[in-house]
Amino acid sequence: MAKQTFEESLQELEAIVKQLEQGDVPLEEALAAFKKGITLSKQCQETLTKAEDALTKIMQENGEAVVFEEEEK
User: Fold this and answer.
1) Coil, helix or strand for 73?
2) Would you list the domain boundaries of the chain?
3) pLDDT exceeds cutoff 80 at 68
4) CB under 8 Å to 52, separation ≥6 — which residues?
5) Which of 12, 17, 36, 70 is the most exposed place for a label (fewest CB within 10 A)?
6) Which of 58, 64, 10 is nearest to 37 (CA)?
7) Rounded distance, CA 43 to CA 28, Å?
8) By C-alpha distance, which of 54, 51, 70, 69 is closest to 6?
9) Dihedral in degrees, nearest 10, Cα atoms 8, 9, 14, 17
10) Other C-beta atoms within 10 Å of 46: how many?
């Protein structure tokens, strides 16, 4: 089986969250879904971190300093 894309993982994670929020899932299924959700969350975070690192490297190779900071609203 091919590895899921970031978008597929995020979509599955969102479905798990909705399912668990409804609260009508048997305990065993809820625990399995929670475990899967944690795994998906870690995969998504890892993908985002790798993308940020790659972008920083690309930008730095172009001679530009890049600082990733959240915009103030």
Assistant:
1) coil
2) 8-62
3) no
4) 68
5) 70
6) 10
7) 23
8) 51
9) 150
10) 11
Query: What is the tens place of the pLDDT at every residue in 16-32?
Result: 999 999 989 999 999 99
As a whole number of angstroms, the distance between CA 54 and CA 25 comes to 40
State the Cα angle at 46 between 63 and 25, rounded to 5°: 150
Amino acid identity for residue 25 in this structure:
V
Q: Which residue, 73, 17, 5, 16, is CA-closest to 43?
A: 5
**Tokens 């299924």 sit on residue:** 29
Question: For 45-54, how does the pLDDT look when each residue is reduced to its tens digit (9 = 90+)?
Answer: 999 999 988 8
Which residues, 6 or more positions from 6, have their beta carbon under 8 angstroms from its beta carbon? 44, 47, 48
